[in-house]
Amino acid sequence: MSPLVLLHGWALTPAVWASFAHALPATLEVRTPALPGHALAPAVAPVLTAWTDALLPQLPGEAVVCGWSLGALVALDLAARYPERVTRLILIGGTPRFVSTAACDGGEAWQHGLDAKVAQDFITRFGHDPAATMQRFIALQALGDGRRRSVTTSLAAASSDTGPEHAGALAAGLQVLTTTDLRPAIAHIAQPTLLLHGEGDALMPVAAAQWLAEHLQDARLVQFAGCGHAPFLSQPAECAAAIGHFTLD
Fold first, then answer.
1. What are the two backbone dihedrals, phi and then psi, of residue 169, each rounded to the nearest 5 degrees?
2. pTM of model > 0.85
3. Counting Cβ atoms within 10 Å, is residue 225 exposed (0-12), middle (13-18) or buried (19+)?
4. What is the sign of the dihedral through the CA atoms of 110, 115, 117 and 121?
């Protein structure tokens, strides 16, 4: 059985998985590496491929890769560029493109993401006040969740240090999050994929997951009512059961 690798989101640490990991089937070998520039992991260039390549040596030879939010973009890139390393794919709050865009330069419009002006505002605000921007981002992730207060508390407890020595690396992560567009790669991803998404997700609309379900070769979508961007914190038992059935099937 392949190990299960859990990839966290922007400005969080692997600690965000701590309680959820206990809800997963005991037969699963769970690994929770840190993304570049987070926790104690060294920072790398602010492009997704550099992040994926930096993470690769920490992964087992083969794994079920589960990515949440920014981690979902990394997981998609792993599956697309290193298919021999990813046996199955799980995306929580996932999307091929985080920011909405109008059609331009021959590219197709994308309306299932965060408003471009809001995304730019996050980048600008982070440059002036990283800590306050982090709090706002956490609040947005918990918005639309029936357990908003507990989700906010869990995210805050697992958040990255925003001090001067870490702010540059986190800014790079924000750039990766807001500039990546994996739509051209989606049709080439053949691994069985499980999509888990909160129906109340205010950060990443469930329409993004529905688009992935339609365009990936082998995907199924599970939507969680009353959940925001972090259903694994809001409904851990239900998320763990879905992952268990998918990985042990």
1. -65, -40
2. yes
3. exposed
4. negative
Q: How many residues does the chain have?
A: 249
Give yes or no for residue 11 having a pLDDT over 80.
yes
In DSSP notation, 171-190 reads HHHHHHHHH-B-HHHHTT--
pLDDT of 99 strictly over 80: yes
Which residues are designated catalytic?
Answer: 69, 201, 229
pLDDT higher than threshold 80 for residue 231: yes
Q: For the chain, where are the E strands, in sequence order?
A: 4-7, 30-31, 63-68, 86-92, 193-198, 219-224
Mean pLDDT of the region 62-78: 98
Domain extent, residue 45, equals: 4-248
Output the domain CATH number for residue 179. 3.40.50.1820
Residue 126, both tokens: 């982070």
